Each structure stands twice: as structure tokens, then as C-alpha cells.
Amino acid sequence: DEVFQNETRFPGGEWKPAAEPYTDVNGEKAQSPEDFECPPGWTWEDQWSFDSDRAVDERGWEYGVTIPPDDKPKSWVAAE
């Protein structure tokens, strides 16, 4: 499973949890990693970790202008 932890801030402000603090790859609301339960008969192999193969900083954060899904016209959203 992939879970994205989201934070937000205004320029010069402090980082705080976003309205949807955890989302899936499609930007839909998701559970926090601690709330995920294994299916019956399964066990966790390891702790959750961040994907360092993405464009992230040393702590695993990826930065953008908006958090999808957003209601702004797509021409306003930064793109790589």
C-alpha cells in the first residue's frame, strides 16, 4: 500500500497537517499508516518507510503547490 502524509503552510508560516493528512496515490482520503491492519494470516515484515526513489528531500518530503485532488484549473498546478 502507498500512503502519503500531507502537510500545508502559507508562505513564511509553520507546517501543519493538511485538511486530509493522509491520502492515497489518487489523492483520496486514506488511513494513517499506524491504522492499517494486515489481512488475516498476514504479518508486517518491516516498518513503514518513505520512497527515496521519488523527488524527495532527505526526510522523504516531496514539495508542491497544491495537494491533489484540488479544485483549481489544472493550468494553475505546478508540473514537473
TrEMBL record:
Residues 1-46 are annotated as: Disordered. InterPro entries: Peroxin/Ferlin (IPR006614). One of its GO terms (cellular component) is membrane. Signal peptide: none annotated. Residues 1-51 form the Peroxin/Ferlin domain. It comes from the Eukaryota. This is Myoferlin. The gene is MYOF.
